[in-house]
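Replying to the earlier thread about multi-chain prediction with a worked example.

Input:
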Amino acid sequence: MTAPASGLSPQERVDPKNWTNKLRGRIEGLVPPGQALPARQPVYVASWIYVFGVLTLASLVVVVASGCVLAMGGVAWWHVSSLGHFFNSIHLWSVEMTFGFMVVHLWGKFWMAAWRGKRALTWITGVMLFGISIGTSFTGFLSQSNFDSQWIGGQAKDGLNSIGAGAFFNVLNPGQMLMWHIVLLPLAVGALTLVHIILVRRHGVVPPLDAELEG
Amino acid sequence: MTSLSIVTGAPGKYIHWGVIQISVTNATIIAVMIVLFVLALVVPFPTHDDEQSKPSGRSR
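Result:
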């Protein structure tokens, strides 16, 4: 990977111990030049099935944004305020859409064997995202501060305690579940989403099976 | 507490089919996702007419 010459002194360009240089080189080498946000795609991408990845991403943005608004009001806000109820509903339905789009995206990628062409890690990070997103939504159910969340926590504790997870992941502790829901799991989802997108841009969109056979 | 209710009164409706038990809501959502998947495969994707007339037809 060659660094652009503009703005860099010769010493900067050749110094192998300069960690900033090395980090910049790594960041620049993450995706091929011009592929970070390409304006054009191969002709086979002109299908609705290729749209569901970005639909998942778009609805995830709404999930995070509405979650940030709810964070300002607190967990009980939606019980006592019509505005809070509105944003709670935005949060719920954007989550529903995120999962709906994600599942259709998953089906599409499964049936086109999207792990082909050194894209295994893209597939694996997608599966991990699916699993962690489910965990994030489950901790969201536990953060509703109502009888539903109480009942869900009461049911979930037995399964988690049976495998020993209850010692450090207590579903009957609403404060702990809220922190997992709004800090730890969203961080994991955000980081993995970034890796997933970089991998997609790095290896390109997977071609259809018949296109690869013809090639 | 306002009129916004924490507890919904009516229980959900469930479909019982052998060992399978699923709420009507969840079954509907799954059906919608399947319909969406099929539509995504069969509905033609809109393309720009001016782009199609260009000689380099490999890209949209």
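Residues 24-42 of chain B form the longest helix (19 residues).

Feel free to reuse this layout for your own posts.
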